[in-house]
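To: structure subgroup
Subject: Chain for Friday's discussion

All,

I'm putting the inputs and outputs inline so they're searchable in the archive.
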Amino acid sequence: MAASAAKAVFDVVVIGGGPAGATTATLLAQRGFSVAVLEKDRHPRFHIGESLLPANLALLDTLGVGEQVRVIGMPKWGAEFVSPWHANKSQTFEFAEAWDKSMPMAYQVRRSEFDQILLRNAAVKGATVVEGCTVRDVQFNPGGDGATIAAEHDDGNRSSWQARYVVDASGRDTFLGGRFKAKHRNPKHNSASMFAHFRGATRGEGKAAGNITIFWFDHGWFWFIPLADGTTSVGAVAWPYYFKTRQKPLADFFADTIAQSPELSARLQHATRVTDVEATGNFSYTCDRTHGPGYLMIGDAYAFIDPVFSSGVMLAMQGAFAAADALTTSLRDPKAEAKAMAAFDRAMRHGPREFSWFIYRVNHPTMRDLFMAPRNIFRVKEALLSVLAGDIFGTTPIWGSVRVLKAIFYISALRRLGRSLKARALRKRQIHPETLPDGVGS
């Protein structure tokens, strides 16, 4: 593969074979373009981010893998939020109550299986897929007229690839973002995470068995994601100052952190951890561009925001659809490239912007009040559920109600100004950049 690929010229070379890269490659191959995917790992491989959104399902059907994902998936009909500061403790949102009633559920998936399905599908649809292949360098031709990509294979061989366009779907490696010094810490958010899988956790009953649960605690929040094979993904997302307090092995620190949530601890009382505890830091960042001469950035290679609303895979795949459309236009009609890339840029920025407003405020006491006692005045609950479902790219007319919801938040925050000022001061401390201890990641 390496020897023949070294002589090949592709319309597009995609760096990375996760959901963003595999989706882009599949769509372009279906449209008749020559496309190669260079993936550094070999699938299946472990990855977090197991919770899909209802808006994912139509995309999966378009790619032709919807049924395969249903086979491996745990049905997810809603999301539960658990607050230690509210008398009712728990509030469940069902996607069937969103504005668009045609997207009532999603799936929880083991990412090793899900990502493999997407990558194998890209190969079936005609893309050249090379695993165990790490991109080392990209040299763009003058004026952005194509690029030469240098790669190293896990057997030590090297290869050179030529392409008219490069798509950076390298995830948190942010290959081009790092090269161009375009990646920047998000000044409005800053968090880190630790996580593991458990067996024997207590789940909800009936349809609620597959719901994702978010547990708030003093230093951030936990996720609880049931998988179809009986394991449950559990993670803690907290502020860097909290991770700096760690003075014991990561597994012990994780256990102590879980103990801070009585509700989560009860769910895990009879559970056994079946994977090592892993951690990652620098959770929230963005690049200052989505594209440039001869390249596009999509998925986590462009930006990553806090995963509290499980938006990662959906934004990666939506970005891939937008990238495929922009590249289709640009490859077939180079004179239309500027307009196509401008539309791609708007699509890429839209998702993170809309989710971020809620993410930046999800730990604010006023926002917690709204989540724990939702009202549907002016259809604001339906609009919120549409956002939680990922229904923010289509024609569902939610935006007037979203604006009303934001107004309710601001008015409610002003009514309890003292509490809001304290929350603002706390958030300033929370988002202050910190150097994380060894073992958390970078």
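Points worth raising on Friday:
The chain has a mean pLDDT of 93.
The longest strand covers residues 158-168.

D.
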